[in-house]
């Protein structure tokens, strides 16, 4: 279980760091579409991005509860942890499934910031959420694998040294189970780009640095296979629970950001000769959003505690991500409403966060697929696909 004093001290540290990167900093990046290099470097220098790396590999050796607190505070400060959150959970696949040689090779350098591993290549344009149908292939050729295919929406590729790639090593019709026949690889992006990997940025609604990837006979060393061949779905699946819980924590931070902004504005803004927050029509939506965020946070804590205890947490990870992303989205909409026309002025920093928090109802997994998971795996309803 997390130590409350340590959690609070981590929160204080992150809050202090975030004060150096105020809302104006994030608005500037949203406009210029630049990467928050200074912020990510500061976060790395202070050890926060290496929170989940054990001390023996140079990290801080903390748990998911602490990592959640870090991302929540960044979101609450008005920042966008989406620029770097993946390093926390992508690294986990190396930690849990890598050979000792791979751990020694990568983890200390990720912890020190010498290497960034914050790119995760799963989604494909023609198969989408149907991950086990993905088509990007990895063909063994001597001591190499030859990669061909396409990925889409792969975030932070241009700001990462390493990418975790899920590719097919056995044709789908030869695989015994849906999840069989996929393998996970560590791709050295500095070597790959221009030598079989082409990266094309996607102009998107938020500054998330997502790209299309085209693999054309990219050759990678066979030693970069992570875990067992054909068993890559399990390798990434483990990390997906951590991803869902961490993103849920970001949503909690976003939700608190919106409620905080709404409370301040509703208390200060006077119309008809009184503060708008004096009207229950304005108060109640704020109170409702606060309540939903507090409730979702309990599920995030529960999921993170189970994860930290090494217990199965699939239902809790999924439920926390769904509840938190819905709570933050409702709070975003409420905050827009409370600010009236001024919500649309970029200098109020609400419309940017409104766009950013919307992502988490869709990615890394959409609400429909969480409901489908709960229906089938928790409630035992018939399988729908
Ligand atoms: C900004 C951004 C960043 C991203 N970053 C990454 C990344 O770094 N790495 C990565 O691998 N991916 C990334 N993604 C991809 C993301 O995980 C997918 O977009 C998401 O999983 C949805 O897949 P899709 O877009 O193909 O939607 P689809 O699978 O085409 O689904 C479209 C809609 O139909 C619904 N739907 C489809 N089938 C069913 C069904 N059987 N029952 C009910 N509903 C259904 C879905 O819920 C969804 O609402 C990112 C996406 C975005 C937008």
For the sheet with most strands, the description reads: 4 strands, mixed
What CATH architecture of the largest domain would you give? Up-down Bundle
Can you tell me the CATH topology of the largest domain? Butyryl-CoA Dehydrogenase, subunit A, domain 3
Q: How many domains in all?
A: 3
Q: What's the tally of helices?
A: 12
For the termini, the CA-CA separation is: 37 Å
- Computed Rg: 21 Å
Strand content: 5-15%
Task: Give helix and strand order, one letter per element, not per position.
Answer: HHHHHHEEEEEHEEEHEEHHHH
Lateral strand order in the biggest sheet: 1-4-5-8
Q: What helical percentage do the residues reach? A: 40-55%
Average pLDDT confidence is 97
Low-confidence parts lasting 5 or more residues at pLDDT below 50? none
Beta strand count: 10
The fourth-level CATH homologous superfamily of the largest domain is Butyryl-CoA Dehydrogenase, subunit A, domain 3
Topology at a glance:
Blueprint: H1 4-19, H2 23-32, H3 37-45, H4 64-76, H5 86-97, H6 100-112, E1 119-121, E2 137-141, E3 144-155, E4 162-168, E5 182-188, H7 189-192, E6 197-201, E7 210-221, E8 225-226, H8 232-268, E9 270-271, E10 274-275, H9 280-308, H10 314-338, H11 350-358, H12 367-378
Parallel strand pairs: 1-4
Antiparallel strand pairs: 2-3, 3-7, 4-5, 5-8, 6-7, 9-10
Helix pairs in contact: 1-4, 4-8, 5-6, 5-8, 8-9, 8-10, 9-10, 10-11, 10-12
This protein binds flavin-adenine dinucleotide.
Flavin-adenine dinucleotide (FAD) binds near residues 155, 210, 366 and 372.
